[in-house]
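User: Here's a structure from my thesis project, written as structure tokens. My advisor, Dr. K., wants to see whether a designed sequence matches the one we expressed. Can you design one independently, without my sequence as a hint?
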């Protein structure tokens, strides 16, 4: 939660709270929602100002800002042209309880004290002022390559992933692709002359569907990580399905990888494969080739191949499962002779005991010899 109206501020020691409104594309309503919440907390007595607002000519957004104090922008002369940017120093001098900052990924004009707007926000937060900000999912640094593959557009303005990790609250503003297309056609996002071009490029239906999923998944990941870092959370709080396939040097374990990939595909889950080697045993040339083949096949399935070293394979797999928040483990049926399984507990039994309280499903797959 952000600061309440009756909070006593100590600017020298208190860092401001940061709330980010994130969406899949321009026009979903991030800025409108930010302004709506600002009006609400202002009626509760909180001192709120607009640091920077980009309406892009959207009438509804401009009307929603009426009644909120706006800090004048700073004029900067670049190549004899006067441009303006958010005046960070003026905001700190004004010292409100909350400032609204639109378009977090914006690049400041040359000559500004800082290159990026998010850096201005960090300065404001360090002065003890709370910040509401907005950003679209395509501006996240780690998703840049994925977004480029989806849309064919390389996004130049990006923010580091840590901003979402460090934020006190992240809210996804979600609308369906159909609703967004309707807003675009009604002229609520861009000027009429840009509508058809936008529909044929960035705002194609398939792009919007993929970007929406990215936004929802990213925020879900952030929530899950926050829950797991909380001292009050239960042992397991997995939002996404994650499949871990346990591979061995047996050639037929490739079948496990294929089966695990199908399970991950059905569940729309992340896929991992792990191979645990014994530190006291060297792999033969044939076994090494098999492991390398498994690694390449895992990558072809869109998964991540992991390697570990331990004499206790079951324990090492359980450690990987905990670290990666695995929800499904795929193993092959035991290759031990029956008499050995009678003398000592099987690998399957040992693994089941280790993951018993982690809410992980164990799939034991019969493979052809």
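Assistant: Designed independently from the structure alone:
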């Amino acid at each position: 939660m952000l600061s309440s109206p009756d909070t006593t501020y100590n600017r020298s020691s208190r860092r401001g709270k940061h709330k980010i409104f994130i969406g899949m594309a321009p026009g979903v309503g991030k800025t409108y929602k930010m302004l709506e919440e600002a009006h609400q907390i202002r009626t509760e007595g909180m001192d709120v100002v607009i640091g920077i607002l980009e309406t892009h000519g959207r009438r509804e957004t401009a009307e929603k800002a009426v009644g909120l104090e706006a800090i004048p922008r700073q004029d900067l002369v670049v190549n004899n042209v006067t441009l303006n940017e958010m005046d960070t120093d003026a905001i700190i001098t004004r010292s409100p309880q909350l400032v609204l900052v639109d378009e977090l990924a914006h690049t400041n004009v040359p000559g500004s004290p800082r290159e990026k707007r998010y850096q201005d926000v960090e300065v404001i937060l360090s002065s003890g002022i709370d910040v509401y900000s907005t950003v679209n999912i395509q501006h996240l640094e780690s998703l840049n390559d994925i977004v480029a593959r989806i849309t064919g557009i390389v996004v130049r303005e990006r923010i580091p992933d840590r901003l979402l990790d460090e934020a006190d609250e992240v809210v996804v503003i979600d609308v369906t692709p159909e609703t967004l297309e309707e807003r675009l056609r009604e002229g609520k996002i861009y000027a009429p002359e840009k509508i058809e071009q936008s529909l044929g490029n960035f705002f194609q239906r398939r792009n919007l569907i993929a970007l929406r999923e990215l936004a929802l998944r990213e925020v879900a990941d952030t929530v899950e990580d926050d829950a797991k870092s909380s001292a009050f959370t239960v042992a397991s709080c997995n939002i996404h399905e994650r499949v871990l396939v346990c591979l061995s040097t047996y050639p037929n374990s490739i079948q496990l990888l294929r089966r695990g990939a199908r399970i991950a595909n059905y569940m729309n889950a992340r896929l991992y494969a792990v191979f645990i080697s014994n530190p006291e045993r060297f792999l033969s040339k044939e076994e090494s080739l098999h492991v390398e083949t498994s690694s390449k096949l895992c990558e072809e399935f869109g998964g991540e191949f992991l390697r570990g070293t331990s004499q206790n394979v079951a324990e090492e797999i359980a450690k990987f499962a905990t670290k990666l928040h695995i929800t499904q483990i795929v193993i092959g049926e035991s290759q031990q002779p029956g008499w050995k399984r009678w003398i000592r507990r099987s690998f399957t039994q040992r693994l089941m005991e280790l993951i018993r309280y982690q809410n992980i499903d164990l799939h034991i797959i019969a493979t052809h010899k």
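When you compare it with your expressed construct, this may help: Residues 18-229 form a domain with the Rossmann fold fold (CATH 3.40.50.300).
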